[in-house]
Amino acid sequence: MRRPLSLAQQLFALQLAVIALLVIAGSLLAYFDSKRISEAAAERRVLVLASALAELAEVRDALASDDPAAQLQPLASTLVAATGSDFIVFMAPDRTRFSHPDEALIGQPYIGSIDAALAGGVVTEKYEGTLGPSVRAVVPIRPATEGSAEITALVSIGILQQQLGREVRERVPVLLGTAGGALLIAAGGTLLISRRLSRQTLGLGPAEITRMYEQHDAVLHAVREGLLIVDIRGRLILANDEAQRLLGLPGSAENRPVSELGLDEPMTLLLTSGEPVSDRLIVFHDRVLVVNTEIARKDSRTLGTVTTLRDHTELETLTGELDSARGFAEALRAQAHESANRLHTVVTMIELGQPEKAVEFATVELQAAQQLTDRVLGAVDEPALAALLLSKAAQAHEKGVELVISEDTAVTVQDVSPRDLVTIVGNLVDNAIDAAVAAPPPRRVSVSAITGEDAFVLTVTDTGRGVDSQHIDDIFTRGWSTKTAEAPHGRGLGLALVKQILAKYSGTIDVEVNGGTVFTVRLPASRGDR
Question: What is the pTM of this model?
Answer without folding.
Answer: 0.46
